[in-house]
Design brief:
Structural class: mainly alpha
Distance between the termini: 46 Å
Number of strands: 0
Strand content: under 5%
Number of helices: 4
Helix content: 55-70%
């Protein structure tokens, strides 16, 4: 009976690995938004270019096709932009609640 419960049906995606680097998660989006919120001018631009390049390099190294990498980087950029707007609308969190 234990064998029956642990057996998985074979599917079309059996053995397929999907790249999901930890660096694209919510914490990274929030970190980048905080950094961009405190930087200005050339410093902000250089930081942003480096972060997007780092993400692209990480995804490529994980084996993601280049066409998908571009889409993921664009999604990351949109997520960070949304977080920037959200944080500016709501103001800074009290010190005890900072993420």
């Amino acid at each position: 009976m234990a064998t029956e419960m642990t057996r998985r049906p074979a599917g079309d995606n059996e053995g397929r690995i999907i790249a999901f680097p930890a660096g694209t998660g919510t914490a990274n989006v929030e970190r980048c938004a905080r950094e961009l919120g405190r930087r200005h001018g050339a410093d902000a631009i250089e930081f942003w270019k480096a972060e997007c390049r780092r993400l692209a390099d990480q995804l490529l190294a994980a084996g993601m096709p280049e066409s998908d990498v571009g889409q993921r980087v664009l999604q990351f950029q949109q997520d960070v932009q949304s977080e920037l707007v959200f944080s500016h609308q709501n103001g800074p969190l009290p010190k005890s609640q900072n993420r």
